[in-house]
Amino acid sequence: MGRPFYVTTPIYYVNDAPHIGHAYTTITADALARWHRLIGDDVFFLTGTDEHGLKIQRAAEANGLTPREQADRTSVRFKEAWDQLGITYDRFIRTTDPDHYQVVQEFLQRVYDSGDIELSTYEGPYCVSCEGYYAESDLIDGVNCPIHNRPVEVLVEENYFFKLSRYEQRLLDWYEANPDAVQPESKRNEAIGLIKSGLRDVSITRTSLQWGVPVPWAPGHVFYVWYDALINYCTAIRGKEELYWPAVHHLLAKDILRFHCVYWPAMCMAAGIDPPAHLNVHGYLLIGGEKMSKTALNQIAPADLIADFGVDPYRYHFLRDVSFGPDGDFSYEGMVARYNSDLANNLGNLLSRVATVVDKKCGGVGPAPTAGSPLAAVAAAVVEDTASAWDRVQPPEALEATWRLIREANAHLETNEPWKAEPGPAVDAVLGDALEVLRIVALLVQPAMPSTSAEIWRRIGLDGMPGDELLPAAAAWGGYPGGLPVEKGAPLFPRINVDR
Ligand code: ME8
Fold first, then answer.
1. Domain 332-485 bears CATH identifier 1.10.730.10
2. The pLDDT of residue 1 is above 90
3. Substitution candidate for ligand 1 out of 252, 262, 268, 292 with most atoms within 8 A of CB
4. Residues whose CB is less than 8 angstroms from the CB of residue 424 and which lie 6 or more positions away in sequence, other chains included
């Protein structure tokens, strides 16, 4: 087995159906998981649904369902969306899974036994959408949640509190000792800022609702949804902690930075385990500059875009166009433009013109590449840049590198114009080099576009699947053997007309 690579998405609330924001994090995690499988790592990819708490209970009531029915119905919708998008998770966890109850109870009992959980009364502004308390000073105009810009409610409860205030210095020391733990740097600074502004103890149990994991030492109390939820990352690798913990990559958006980058590392310390090694925080996907929300009626379901573009172009668009870190604006026009330029004009065109000329000039049999091809050096640099970009969780850079190779191959064909030349060694050399580029491209695009990758592989006559042999060796120049049948198929990416 290779090096362990554990990657997680947030577990999504089941109050509503998945939209392109949830899909963005999940596709990024999937692409990372696929890349790490390609390089031979031992991958464990976790996603799932977060099913307890007031927010779900209220959504269930509004829909005339029990919380369990609400959770069952919506959890399936996430699974269906991920199946449609080709998400290769190893476990889809539901916080209502029995093993999760057990791990949550064990984890928090440990913290209780160590003295970091105490009974106390709390009164404060609470946002049900966040499932979190705020300080008065955090509120917009003194009344609205800073994330949802909607009025908060004042909750008063006698609860068990996690003594987060004791962890200020330990967290700052941890940040100091682990400068790369939270990426990108701007998000790390935000987390450090939150810690430095002072940490108050947080309430981690509720008596006002039943829908949660029971607190083992206090009948009538359930754990507050966030504490149950965060521990899912431990449930999924139970018994395999030595392999996968703490070397995890938690992917999340900035809305839940406070929970992941402040509370969660402190909880881990309190439970006697190392904090997570990597927290990769991205921005929001905006629609016309606005955050997607139920109330703004601007949520887009992945299926709507898949119907127009197909699964692989959908995955490609979000991975290529949304930089991991800052906010990104989604537009339909931008998606069409990216599709036409990168997929129809560049990759699709390379494949179809090579197959057409191989058919005409080589009787449909692909020639072998040449050792001294000018494209060999480009390919080697691109493979290296792609690997480095995935390593830094920067999918747009990984794909941009791959497209450099595609553009160079197209330019090489245009310079040499094999379609105008007589069949012979010169034509064979140019086409063999282009086929080798297609083989390497099929490998490099696999994390983003798995079906396209397999289809290119098949059309240029290769057996098996891209990835049967591991990278980087598989992507070394000269792997295309030549002498294989090349298929002239229908265009992979027919142009999309913008004026439809
Ligand atoms: O917070 N842009 O669940 P959630 C980008 N259950 N990403 C977005 C997005 C957007 N507009 N909207 C949602 C929860 N996301 C908790 C998590 S984890 C232990 C518990 C993605 O359903 C992004 O990953 O509100 C964000 O962090 C997550 O969905 C929030 O999902």
1. yes
2. no
3. 252
4. none
263 pocket-lining for ligand 1 (C-beta < 6 Å):
no
Most informative mutation of 13, 16, 20, 22 for ligand 1 (most atoms within 8 A of CB): 22
Query: Quick one: average pLDDT of 77-95?
Result: 98
Distance 113 CA to ligand 1 centre (A): 32
Pairing mode, strands 132-133 and 117-127: antiparallel
Would the pLDDT of 500 be above 70?
no
Q: 26: CA distance to ligand 1 center in Å? A: 10
Q: Which residues are catalytic?
A: 19, 22, 127, 130, 145, 148, 291, 294
Average pLDDT over residues 257-265: 98
- 21 contact partners, CB below 8 Å, separation of at least 6: 253, 284, 285, 292
Instruction: Find the mean pLDDT for residues 279-285.
Output: 97
pTM to 2 decimal places: 0.95
pLDDT of residue 499: 66
What residues does each domain of the chain span? 332-485
pLDDT given for residue 296 in this prediction: 75
**Centre of ligand 1 from the C-alpha of residue 428, in Å:** 51
Q: Is the pLDDT of residue 295 over 80?
A: no
- What distance in Å separates the CA atoms of residue 94 and residue 104, rounded to the nearest whole number? 13
As a whole number, the mean pLDDT across the chain is: 95
Q: Whose CA is nearest to atom 22 of ligand 1?
A: 12
